[in-house]
Amino acid sequence: MQNLKEILYMRNKLLENSPLIHSITNPISINQCANVIIALGAKPIMAEHPLEVSNITKKSDALAINLGNITDARIKSIEISSKTAYENNIPFIIDLVGVGISDLRLNLSKNIINNYKPNVIKGNMSEIKSFLNLKSNPKGVDVGEKDKINLNNLDNSVKIAKNLSNKTNSIVLITGKYDIISNSDKTYIVKNGSEKLSNITGSGCMLTNIVSCFLSVSKNIESVLLSTLIINIAAELSQNAKGPGSFLVEFLDNIYNISNEDILKYSNFLIYKE
After folding, report:
1. pLDDT in tens, 8-53
2. Are residues 105 and 97 in contact, defined by beta-carbon separation less than 8 angstroms?
3. The model's pTM
4. Alpha-carbon torsion 81, 87, 89, 95, what sign?
5. Residues comprising the binding site?
6. Binding residues for ATP
7. Domains and CATH numbers, the chain
């Protein structure tokens, strides 16, 4: 990933392929998710009717699933699309939004992950802990103060990520001040980011969809690392915005305009050594 050729390969391949991304997400962030997919050079389709999602997932290059603002129809669609992706070897990510405060979402996520093996499992630390039946302190769909990743609990946070990855054979992405990306072989810690991301709706949902775009190119852990770097560096480049409205506009522009040189220049990550 520190090699420019690898970065160029994944980004150029995405632009070359213009992949179709099937995103089943919540209406709160659906517009931002579609726009970020377009900004990266991919094509979004936001279908969620249970009678059409199997057909659409089959024709897509990757699938993004978000459990936010769940409905009966979306539950059926998530189950159908996950099964379709699994049976057709289509890469997908599941975002565990709100599983810490909703048994409905928690049970749905366990069903999807146990039966259909997503390539990437994403969540904040409260959500990841809840999924693993560990004591957690969520604050709505946000991470609770006691669960936040910091330098003092980083080692234990990595162990939690590794534990989930080993149990599911999925790449695990835990978001926070320090983002943890882990599989059975390696773990990356990303230090980039901006607190202003918490001032807009759907930044986590946008990351989920960025990951799905790069999963269409490569299923390896570096595709998740690249996705995380892009969104966090774009946020840093938007730091001087006067408020959340202008930040969102600059943020989307910077995702569209970010160069490989920007990524190499501003990347702040490390490979975790146990």
Report:
1. 789 999 999 999 999 999 999 999 999 999 999 999 999 999 999 9
2. yes
3. 0.96
4. positive
5. 46, 122, 175, 202
6. 122, 175
7. 4-271 (3.40.1190.20)
